[in-house]
Amino acid sequence: MCRIFGFTGKNRETLERMGEVLALGGPDDFGFFESEAFSLGHRRLSIIDLSSHARQPMEFDNLVISYNGEVYNYNEIKKELGEYSFTTTSDTEVILKAFHKWGLEAVHKFHGMFAIALWDKSTQKLTLIRDRAGVKPLYYYFDGKTFIFASELKALILHPAFKKNLNMRASSLYFQLGFVPGKHAIFQNTFKLLPGHYLIFDGKSVVTKEYWKLPQKKLAISYEEAKEQTKALLQKSFAYRLVSDVEVGLFLSGGIDSSFLASYLAKKRNIKTFTIGFKDERFNEAKIAAQTAKILGTKHYELYFDVVDLLELLPKIADIFDEPFGDSSALPTYLVAKLAREHVKVALSADGADELFGGYPLNFKNQKRFFFYKMLRFLRPVLRKKRKYMATKSFWEYKLALRYRIYPDELQEEFLLDALECNALLECMFLFDFHYFLTDDVLVKVDRTTMANSLEAREPYLDHDLIEFAFSLPLHFRMSKQILRELLHEELPHLAKLPKQGFSVPIKYWLRNELKEQVLDLLYTPSLLDNIIKKDTIIKEFLKSGKRTNAIWLMYMFRLWEERYMR
Predict the structure, then answer these.
(1) By the 8 A CB rule, do 391 and 470 touch?
(2) Read out DSSP for 432-465?
(3) Whose CB among 75, 116, 371, 500 lies 3.0–4.6 Å from 129's, allowing a Cys bridge?
(4) According to the model, what pLDDT value does residue 390 have?
């Protein structure tokens, strides 16, 4: 796991500054490649082949690579490259020579998470490639003249050509969803390379192309066959994620996904597990994780925190997320990553299972609500008056309305998210969760908080073979994670009926109590908020009823980001 960056032209001072700001994501080494046409930089977190021979950027013939991630099946690919000799045992050298042999088609062989920058000295073209699920981040800036890319925005903005002009559409979408979705970024002329896409920059223009997408057809398969194939794919993916030259641990929340993963790992090796808890017993959910760890015989570590710890952590969170980010579970995720880094260099995370196997209960409640609204036609005028999107006939608009934290009519200028192609409400919900919530909320949260602690996070539920299989299953097989529950029941029967759990915080309670004064003080000060959102209306509603805590938190996190990055 590493951090990568680069730009048109040659500027050693800028390379060093960008490398410095990304140092926590790659503390073990700093390398660079320079030419008059393009420069590449790399910060290394050594996981596979810890020697200096595997440092990056790495060159072979006409190609130069700067790469972030892990390709777990690199030894299998290496066998197909028999005509090449190797000087390292790293996956980087295998990837580089795979591109040399097969060109861009090589990416279809990779199982893993990756953000790859490939400079071709002969054609003077840069290729950027992002993994299928979007586990690893990749931002770029292009103003028609200067091209810059990096793993994080905080590196892009250090380039002298970068202009920090706010993107109003991205800002609007953040306030509606709690994160900046899709290709959008908070600054103008700045974009995220979408998952499953590659980009080619020829010195004058940028072209992006999709190389992978979710399957469209459903399998004709029995439920028992689906369960057996799921188990086989999970075991293969779990085994891949253990490939490492350093010790691997596991984030254990006590829910189904991490418990099933822990039960598999505990059979293969002695593992260390990590969880977070609250000192206030009203909100503490760490006990189930501890019980699971005891049954499985893992070496278990716990860390407890309260609102005082939260107050100390907030400035650091604003620094880590160089784009406004409203998921409050980033706070405990940062702390559990910090705890894990004291003991291991790699930690497995169980993210992705909810999106693949229908794990969000709210989706099924909202499906019932939608049909209830359609049946009771007399409710439509009331709903339309209150929130026009709640009365829509469009599955996609209804899905978005359910996700809104701040409604479009509470913004100074309304921007809506591009629609996804879907033919049923539940399908819309599953697609939204995978393409937007998973990629731009969950995976961003895990990547930034772990990298800020120089820890590599791996996502065993997001192998692309498993993703393709899950999305090929009939929708009724992907309900409430039934397949995973039954597989877990075979391993840990007492946990199979557990509700969904994660590293969450009682942010609504704290906003109404300990955090209230400092939050409102910051919101009342003049800021960019005033050009984006009708904040006074929301604040008045909060003060009157105690509601709208989600909206208050999003505004507060935006203000912390603004103080850090826009002054």
Answers:
(1) no
(2) HIIIIIIIIIIHHHHHHHHHTTT-EEE-GGG-HH
(3) 116
(4) 59
CB crowding 184-201: b at 16 or more within 10 Å, else e: bbbbebbbbbbbbbbbbb
Q: Which of 1, 2, 457, 554 is catalytic?
A: 2
Q: Over the chain, what is the mean pLDDT?
A: 91
Outline where 137-242 has alpha helix (H): 153-156, 168-177, 223-240
Q: Distance between CA 496 and CA 493 in Å, rounded?
A: 6
CA distances from 423 to 237, 366, 427 (A): 30, 16, 7
Per-residue pLDDT at 460 exceeds 70: yes
Quote the pLDDT of residue 398. Answer: 80
What is the structure's pLDDT at 316?
87
Q: What are phi and psi of 342, to 5 degrees?
A: -70, -15
SS3 300: strand
The whole-number pLDDT of residue 375 equals 66
| Residue 397 pLDDT level (bands cut at 50, 70, 90) | confident
| Mean pLDDT computed over 161-185 | 96
pLDDT surpasses 60 at 501: no
Assess whether 428 carries a catalytic annotation: no
Q: At what angle do helices 482-491 and 256-268 cross, to 10 degrees?
A: 40
Ramachandran angles phi, psi of 502, nearest 5°: -160, -170
First-to-last alpha carbon distance for the chain, in angstroms, is 31
Q: Closest by alpha carbon to 155, among 171, 134, 140, 172?
A: 140
* % of the chain exceeding 70 in pLDDT: 93
CA distance 203 to 372: 55
Largest CA distance in the chain: 73
For 208, phi then psi, to 5°, come to: -115, 150
Residue tagged 């057809």 (tokens): 217
Q: How confident is the model at residue 500 (pLDDT cuts 50, 70, 90)?
A: low
Length in residues, the chain? 567
Query: Residue 110 to residues 69, 77, 105, 240: CA-CA distances in angstroms?
Result: 11, 8, 10, 12
Distance from C-alpha of 562 to C-alpha of 567, rounded to nearest angstrom: 7
Asked if residue 98 lies in contact with residue 119, where contact means CB atoms within 8 angstroms, the answer is: no
The phi, psi pair for 374, rounded to 5°, reads -70, -35
Average pLDDT in the 70-77 region? 96
Contact 201, 126 (CB under 8 A): yes
Give the mean pLDDT of 231-241: 95
Compute, in degrees rounded to 10, the torsion defined by CA atoms 414, 419, 425, 430.
-110
State pTM to two decimals: 0.95
Q: How confident is the model at residue 567 (pLDDT cuts 50, 70, 90)?
A: confident
Residues 257 and 268: their CA atoms lie apart, in Å, by 18
